[in-house]
Design goal:
Blueprint: E1 5-10, H1 12-21, E2 25-29, H2 32-38, E3 39-40, E4 43-44, E5 49-54, E6 62-76, E7 79-93
Length: 97
């Protein structure tokens, strides 16, 4: 069976922060796009891994985490957001130099 992967994009600063300080959660604004992507029939979808990518290029840096669940929505900095809970960091791939 093919692994279910949730891909999230982040900016350079966000990815650098992830590398330096680690990450337990990623937040996405509670809008229809993310509701459809993260939920099915009102239930949180299951993913095997979360891929956090710095940009949209095929060779962009990538961090792979084990997926632990989806919570929310909860208010973050005044905005309702879904909380994507990350588990163990499995791998980090950097673009070739």
């Amino acid at each position: 069976m093919k692994a279910q992967i949730l891909t999230l994009r982040t900016c350079k600063e966000g990815f650098q922060d992830l590398l330096e300080h680690g990450c337990q959660y990623k937040y996405r604004e509670a809008k229809p796009f993310w509701r459809a992507r993260l939920f099915s029939d009102g239930q949180a979808k299951h993913f095997d891994e979360v891929h956090i990518k710095n940009g949209y290029q095929p060779d962009s840096p990538l961090a792979i985490y084990e997926f632990s669940g989806i919570e929310g929505p909860e208010v973050v900095e005044g905005v309702p957001c879904f909380k994507i809970v990350l588990w163990k960091l499995k791998a980090i791939y950097h673009s070739p130099s």
